[in-house]
Amino acid sequence: MDRPSTSNAGAWRWIPSLYFCEGLPYVVVMTLSVVMYKNLKVSNTEIALFTSSLYLPWVIKPLWSPLVDLVRTKRFWIVTLQLVLGATFALVALAVPGPNFLRLTLAVFWLMAFSSATHDIAADGFYLHAIPAYQQAAFVGVRSAFYRLAMIAGQGGLVFLAGTLQTATGDVGHAWAVVFFLLAVVFVGAGLYHLAALPLPATDQAVRSGRSLVADFVAVFGAFFRKKGLGVTLGFLLLYRFAEAQLLKLVTPFLLDGRAAGGLGLTTQQVGVVYGTVGVIALTAGGILGGWAISRHGLKRLVWPMIITMHVPNAVFVLLAITQPSNLYLVGTAVAFEQFGYGFGFTAYMLYMILVAEGEHKTAHYAICTGFMALGMMVPGMFAGWLQDHLGYTKFFLWVCTATIPSFAAAALLKIDPAFGRKT
Question: Is the pLDDT reported for residue 5 higher than 50?
């Protein structure tokens, strides 16, 4: 007999671990790969181009998202894909020490990205089925927190470990191989844990109408693109993080590059502490506070405070680039300030996607929203490295501040039910 949809207490058994596992492959593909390639002497232009192109699976995942609704259960997809991701981490570990590391690791990162994007569809869909609607706003902060903790583990702990191993062995390839073997072990263990820990909500079933699979597939897409106010929705999804998409790609190179190149000249270990740990803790705190605030006051009331809090702190990177401080505590404080604002502001974006996805096909429709979110991250990120190479860090960060204007314009057009997200 199926276990019922989980209670508040039961949700703590799987929401933290599930969203940690959703966040970790993403941070590996999008951020840890940047640090690894920088350590391996790949240029900023190549790093930004290649790693931004890896957003593509998250952009096009709506093309296969209906399959997660139409074939088997979300629970099945989650467990299977966590085991597959474990295998991809092992493949990177085998490839990175070799002479053709760039080509081989990029190929595996593509497989990892497709697996991770599909896992995201299943995990987010499972969340929408296993948590009652009135609890979803409150738990958005929790899921965001553990997603961000995965970033601490990736950008902080694993970067610090890689730096420590490099110092101890003098072998960059070997250091990163150890890191990826550790990730492989973690994900195999996670798949086995979730096989036992995930509940079996009655609504987590294949959603079929009795028609052919192709007809059902087309119907799911048609329902999304018939939603009212779709143009405004897509504009918001694509532009809300237009500036942040560019900033995120160059923060790590900026922290690692020497002072002569306009950077801050931090070591890999220091970046792991400052950006990967302190910064992500601040990001997590901002996300938790954002979820709590929306549950108290509703999304409509919080949109403008959140978008302002998200974008204004970008200016700290202009100041860091101009002054190039050597005090690690000052750098950490500046990064934490920017990341807290980002975490607080991004909560509005997550809740808005849940609002748009409401309806019969919420798993697939949420995935379509996140696909547009990924497109909004991929395209600006792809040219960010080229811009920085031509402008230098100070002018690039000034451009990022200017690039926040489209986000404000998109937010001004939103129409949101005042009660949405608020605990009644």
Answer: no
Contacting residues for 145 by C-beta, under 8 A, at least 6 apart = 284, 287, 288
Please give the span between the terminal C-alpha atoms of the chain, in angstroms, as a whole number: 33
Distance of alpha carbon 400 from alpha carbon 404, whole angstroms: 7
For the chain, the average pLDDT equals: 86
pLDDT band at 2 (very low <50, low <70, confident <90, very high): very low
pLDDT digit string, tens, across residues 106-130: 999 999 999 999 999 899 888 888 8
Q: What integer is the mean pLDDT of 341-369?
A: 85
Give pLDDT, residue 421: 65
> Could you read off the pLDDT of 335-344 as tens digits, one per residue?
999 999 988 9
What is the spatial distance between Cα 175 and Cα 245, in angstroms, rounded to a whole number? 29
CB atoms within 10 A of CB 392: 14
Domain ranges of the chain: 11-197+210-412
Please give the class, per CATH, of domain 11-197+210-412: mainly alpha
Return all residues near 138 (Cβ < 8 A) that are at least 6 apart.
Answer: 291, 292, 295, 423
pLDDT at residue number 66: 79
According to the model, what pLDDT value does residue 366 have?
84
**For every residue of the chain, which 3-state class applies, written as one string?**
CCCCCCCHHHHCCCHHHHHHHHHHHHHHHHHHHHHHHHHCCCCHHHHHHHHHHCCHHHHHHHHCHHHHHHCCCHHHHHHHHHHHHHHHHHHHHHHCCCCCHHHHHHHHHHHHHHHHHHHHHHHHHHHHHHCCHHHHHHHHHHHHHHHHHHHHHHHHHHHHHHHHHHHHHCCHHHHHHHHHHHHHHHHHHHHHHHHHHCCCCCCCCCCCCCCCHHHHHHHHHHHHHCCCCHHHHHHHHHHCCHHHHHHHHHHHHHHHCCHHHCCCCCCHHHHHHHHHHHHHHHHHHHHHHHHHHHHHHCHHHHHHHHHHHHHHHHHHHHHHHHHCCCCHHHHHHHHHHHHHHHHHHHHHHHHHHHHHHCCCCHHHHHHHHHHHHHHHHHHHHHHHHHHHHHHHHHHHHHHHHHCCHHHHHHHHCCCCCCCCCCCC
**pLDDT value, residue 182:** 96
Amino acid at 325: P
pLDDT digit string, tens, across residues 143-179: 777 887 887 788 778 988 998 999 899 899 899 999 9
